[in-house]
Amino acid sequence: MGKANKVLVIGGTGYLGKRLVQASLNSGHDTYVMHRPEIGVDIEKIQLLLSFKMQGAHLVSASFDDYQSLVDAVSLADVVICAISGVHIRSHQILLQLKLVQGCMQRFVPSEFGTDPARMEEAMEPGRITFDDKMVVRRAIEEAGIPFTYVAANCFAGYFLGGLCQPGFILPSRERVTLLGDGNQKGIYVDEDDIAAYTLKAIDDPRTLNKTIYVKPPKNVLSQREVVQIWEKYIGKELQKTVLSEQEFLAVMKEQNYAEQVGLTHYYHVCYEGCLASFEVDDDQEATKLYPEVRYTTVEEYLKRYV
Ligand code: NDP
């Protein structure tokens, strides 16, 4: 397969999607950004779309409520990258992607960018819905014979590092931290711009065709305690630490609303079970090995921006 010239990003106004659009522009692809008429008078999103347009992106109006508009949008591109929302506390629209499953793409990258759902068969309720829905989309893609690449990007750094791996926090405290369990389970933290850069590398690569790739930067496989130590080094003091046992965590979780519980389930699997780093990834499926030319952001570098 040659270089895919035309890339359509769906969900390009989102948290990850806007980075995928930028990475597509940066890598010289002819970039199409789908936006929906329902965007209304959201001035921030319109301005973001215009900033992409000024860099050469083509803006394409289409809606999941108008199937023909979707077909027309998809037909503009060789590769479709979807970053539609999939976090319940924001919005969860993963199954809408079933409307995108058509045969005319060179490659489809569905909205995943987290824990590999294929490894989460035993995941807990209610958070398993995220993995179950992503697997429904995978099965539809594979049954339709659409070439694909799945990107298992592990933890978005902004959520996990910003909060020192504590759910409900996205800014690191200078006073205290709650350790989840013994704080020794390893997580994997990835700068969202790096996720986008690796994704754009992968779409042109025959090695990643019909494969899952994992973004597992070797220096970013760290426990919560190790993340906290890096932060403590920056602020020059030790944080006051409280331990939240597994039982306490699960009890607190049960008191939350549905959307919060979904998110907490994910933290549980990452921070108490170590689900991300508990298996080996072959070099030919690991993004930093496949694309050593991408200089990834280390946890140390990422945390520095909060000092
Ligand atoms: P966002 O919530 O930021 O939303 C992304 C996009 O979805 C927006 O562009 C939004 O468009 C679009 N969208 C929502 N509803 C519709 C609809 N009905 N029709 C068309 N477009 C719609 O998404 P995230 O960036 O948070 O999530 C992207 C992916 O990353 C998901 O798969 C998610 O599970 C994953 N993720 C992984 C994390 C990790 O730590 N590994 C953390 C967070 C997310 P509009 O602007 O028009 O509303």
What are its keywords?
307 residues, alpha/beta, five-stranded parallel sheet, 35% helix, globular, binds NADPH dihydro-nicotinamide-adenine-dinucleotide phosphate, NADP, pinoresinol reductase activity, EC 1.23.1.2, (+)-lariciresinol reductase
How do you describe this structure in short?
It is an enzyme of class 1 (oxidoreductase). The chain has about 300 residues and is α/β, with parallel strands linked by helices.
Q: Which helices and strands occur, and which strands form pairs?
A:
Blueprint: E1 6-10, H1 17-26, E2 30-35, H2 43-54, E3 58-61, H3 67-74, E4 79-82, E5 86-87, E6 91-92, E7 107-109, H4 128-143, E8 149-152, E9 155-156, H5 157-160, E10 176-180, E11 186-190, H6 192-202, E12 211-214, E13 221-223, H7 224-235, E14 240-244, H8 246-254, H9 258-272, H10 287-290, H11 299-304
Parallel strand pairs: 1-2, 1-4, 2-3, 4-7, 8-12, 9-11, 10-14
Antiparallel strand pairs: 5-6, 11-13
Helix pairs in contact: 1-6, 8-9
Bound molecules: NADPH dihydro-nicotinamide-adenine-dinucleotide phosphate.
